[in-house]
Design brief:
This protein is α/β, with parallel strands linked by helices. The protein has one domain: NAD(P)-binding Rossmann-like Domain (Rossmann fold, 3-Layer(aba) Sandwich). The chain is 48% helix and 13% strand. The strands form two sheets. A five-stranded mixed beta sheet has the order 3-4-5-6-7, sandwiched between helices. The protein has a two-stranded parallel ribbon with strand order 1-2. Helix 5 packs across helix 6 (179-189) and helix 8 (201-208) packs across helix 9 (210-217). The longest helix has 22 residues, at 129-150. The relative contact order is 0.13.
Length: 256
């Protein structure tokens, strides 16, 4: 099952996949910038009466200007909040042993000093595109650990993945919109940029490999280059994680 904002491109990809495999690939429209689209996707999926064994939360936007039209920090809403809503609404369809893979980034280390700007998330005052992108990725890490522990008894495993610097259209646009920082990061990181296939390797590892499941049972939840990776203390802050999940749960209730 592929949830995508651009149905035409997704259906073309689905046809290509089906021509090369024995799988049946369905496409449903899903726009992670819109909570109504998330609810519509979930309704359509649940109507199929399918069970989920793997959910990859991979949609995302790179650092971008504050959205003056919607008065929202789009990175926080797309990269974290609506993935949270999507996952919570799909929980009833999870098989025991299901895995959820959240695609985050090492950039989480450069979030705002307080980690999450509660009360100011959708405030353009003090907004910084790179810090807000980092905030959304830190939120994914905090939620991954919190939700993984909460659902451990059900056998559902949560992973967070750093794919590395990957050559995509989104990363190219981000370099242009991030000014001198984007240009500097591009110059420093250019030799280490991965292909899309290499960038997807750790996501696939966490979604399918028995080794990833074993690591997860021993408390490892953050992976890069198909191996566990250590995290900063702030991403293990249980109080901050609980506050974040409570905030997201209120947003979920408001979007119903």
């Amino acid at each position: 099952m592929v949830g995508a904002r651009d149905e035409a491109r997704a259906k073309a990809l689905a046809c290509e996949l089906m021509s090369k495999t024995t799988s049946i690939v369905r496409v449903l429209r899903l726009d992670l910038s819109c909570s109504k689209s998330v609810h519509a996707f979930v309704d359509a999926f649940l109507a199929l009466n399918l069970k989920l064994t793997v959910l990859v939360n991979n949609a995302g936007i790179m650092p971008c200007p504050f959205d003056a039209d919607s008065h929202r920090d789009l990175a926080f809403h797309v990269n974290f909040l609506n993935h949270f809503v999507l996952t919570q609404l799909l929980l009833e369809s999870f098989d025991p042993g299901a895995r959820v893979v959240n695609v985050t980034s090492e950039v989480y280390r450069f979030s705002y000093p307080e980690g999450i700007r509660f009360g100011k998330i959708d405030d353009d005052r003090g907004y910084d595109s790179v810090k807000s992108y980092a905030q959304s990725k830190l939120a994914l890490l905090l939620w991954t650990r919190y939700q993984g522990e909460a659902l451990r008894e059900r056998g559902v495993q949560f992973f967070a993945v750093h794919p590395g610097s990957v050559a995509t259209q989104g990363s190219a646009r981000a370099r242009k919109s991030s000014g001198w920082r984007g240009a500097l990061l591009h110059c420093v990181g250019a030799p280490f940029v991965k292909s899309v296939e290499c960038g997807a390797a750790t996501t696939i590892y966490c979604a399918l490999h028995p080794g990833a499941s074993m690591y997860n049972r021993f408390g490892e939840y953050y992976f890069a280059s198909c191996n566990p990776r250590g995290v900063r203390e702030i991403s293990r802050d249980a109080t901050l994680a609980r506050r974040l999940v409570e905030y997201a749960a209120r947003e979920l209730d408001a979007s119903a």
